[in-house]
Amino acid sequence: MANHKTASILLISLLLLLGLTGCTSGKTAGGGRTEGQAASAAGGNVTIQFMHLWPAGASPQQNKLVNEIIDQYESEHPNITIQQEVMENEQYKNKLKILSAANELPDVGVTWAAGFMDPYVKGDLFAPLDDLLDRGLKDQFVPGATDAYAVQGKTYGLPIELNISPIYYNKAIFEKYHLEVPQTYDQFLDVIRTLNSKGVTPIALGNRDRWTGSIWYMYLADRLGGPETLKKAIDRSGTFEDPALIQAADEIQKLVDMNAFNKGFNGLSNEEGKSVFMNEQAAMFLAGTWEVPNFTSNPDVPENFKKNVGFFKFPTFAGGKGDINSWVGGPGVGLFVAENSRVKDEAKQFVEYFISKWGAESVSTAGVIPATKVDTSSSDLPQLYIDLLDELNNASNLTLFADVQMKWNAAQTHLNMIQALFGKAVTPEQFVKEHEAALQKGD
Predict the structure, then answer these.
(1) pLDDT per residue over 97-138, tens digit each?
(2) From residue 328, how far is each of 168, 191, 324 by CA, in Å?
(3) Distance (Å, rounded) from C-alpha 172 to C-alpha 313?
């Protein structure tokens, strides 16, 4: 297919630029499929390769849950073995590109929705999963949760998480310096100034991964221009040179100028930035609800820190059009099945099982907000989780992460420009012009 060739050429070009490979861990590392695996699908023992992004170090509760589900599945299906390949977020994305260029994707893997998924769908690399939805799985999902994984009427991924992105804060630090949770952006800036005057780092950030800084930009764009401004700029019913999007970029650089973030933030990974907050060396940290397990149920995190973690909504901007109940978030990662998997039926059955088990158990085991409906009334849940779940239920808007909304090349421009913006290597005007040019190309 022409689309397949186009996607493959694009991905091979990316590999020449990236020159990266992923790391493996877990029970066993997955490699290329073998003839033995193909033969196993005929009725004997079956091996399913499963590649995911929940390492034991960075995501211990999710990793624990994944292994529990796999152990349960293997005990109930003694002829099936699940091979895991596990790596952290950015390594995972790069490895997925490498494998797709060779058309050697794992049987089951993790994907993001919308623009991220687009080249894989166009390259016929992901299998449609509507048959799983039609045979009962659809009723398990929160309404609308699978929409971002649909392309031209077919569903190519099934989400396992829903996320919103609060500003987490250290209640003990706020109390020590008599700080109130800010409701307006002016109050937020006052908090930053007070913390700086006391020698306390206001905000922890690791922006080497770039999507972390993107969330800050997205919220400012939302609070200044309302949620439709950024969405329209991306879907091309609007322009990225909208005054609100220029002002949002300017506000980012004002935060940098007032030393709102930890030193060296643009060269630190998200994990390194997060550690500044978790070591109580910074007062605030903006991240998705995927971090809730680290702040509530992770046994390796000190209880004194966990009890000090609270959250607040991104403040409103004076004269802005944004609503304080509008969130950056939406469906989290989902599972795909490789179109060319030699054990496609077994892979689909594992995905169906995984989705059902994850939904029920992710709440109590990992403290994750699932994309499937869960009755939490009988669960003994941390208050932080309950409060965030309530916020999700009362959200006026969920704006999907910008780099996920955009097609691949535009997303790379966005992420590169985010790092340049935070590093003051571009002006706000250059920032929006680069976005507009990339989005106009449509790839």
Answers:
(1) 999 999 999 999 999 998 899 999 999 999 999 999 999 899
(2) 14, 22, 11
(3) 18
